[in-house]
Amino acid sequence: MNLYFVRHGETEKNKSKCYYGRLDVELTDNGILQAEKAGKLLEHIDFDKVYASEKKRAINTAEILLENKKYELMTDARINERDFGDFEGKDHKQLEVLYPEEWKQWCEDWKNVSPPGGESYIDLYKRVKNYMDDILKLNDENILIVTHGGVIRSIYCYILGGNMDYFWNFGSNNGDISVIKYEYGNLYIDSIIHV
């Protein structure tokens, strides 16, 4: 099985370096270009299934990737980006001023502490793990999954035995393609392609 994970194209919130997951924002012109480039790299692959998160930025990226091809695009809430609650749409400087105590707690324990009204990283990992457990039960050869940076990093942790300490050891740029293979019961990262 070949799993092709694509991080959605750039948005204005990416450019401004804000924390956001729940916010539903559009791709920038550069984000559209990134999706087009990723689409060129994947155009020779016939996908058995195509998934995207429920967010416009992921759905739009998937639609651009698959331009002129007929696929049923299935959305799944388990591969939505982390919900940052009251931290949504704000950068770290704003958070230090608006939520000094919550920001401090979050920085000290980023895995377990939830932003006010949001999810902890543990919450995100649990739903990503549940999604991956289900995907690996499928008997498909090629699956495209368009999602978010936090989800993709969580998938790397899943591959590495569920060790969440690896979360920050991988980059995930907008438009990146991560090819993950599942063969003979082994799951591994085959390549990470920057567009």
Automatic annotation (TrEMBL):
Which Gene Ontology BP annotations are present? cobalamin biosynthetic process; glycolytic process
Q: Which residues form the active site?
A: H8, E81
Q: Which GO terms describe its molecular function?
A: alpha-ribazole phosphatase activity; intramolecular phosphotransferase activity
Q: What sections of the sequence does the record tag as coiled-coil?
A: none
Which Pfam families did the record assign? His_Phos_1
UniProt EC number: 3.1.3.73
Q: Which residues bind substrate?
A: R7, H8, G9, E10, T11, E12, K13, N14, R57
Q: Which superkingdom?
A: Bacteria
Matching InterPro entries: His_Pase_superF_clade-1, Phosphogly_mut1, Ribazole_CobC
Cite the CDD domains for this sequence: HP_PGM_like
Q: From the Swiss-Prot or TrEMBL record, give the protein name.
A: Alpha-ribazole phosphatase
Protein source organism? Clostridium thailandense
Gene giving rise to this polypeptide: cobC
